[in-house]
Amino acid sequence: MMDIPALSMAMSQSRLAQNVSIQVLKIAKDQASQDGQSLVKMLDSSTVPHLGNRLDIRI
């Protein structure tokens, strides 16, 4: 015989945990996007724009 109230509680807790995980991932994604935009701005405002265009390597 199935315990309907216990099953309902387990499903509800599982759904809550999944929703919380999704929200945490959305926050992490938004933060990574902001960090990327900040990095692009920083690189665009470089005081010496010609640096980093070439890499001299000797083997």
UniProtKB/TrEMBL annotation:
Lineage top rank: taxon: Bacteria
Pfam family, one: YjfB_motility
InterPro entries (UniProt xref): YjfB_motility
Identification of the protein by name: Motility protein
Native source species: Paenibacillus favisporus
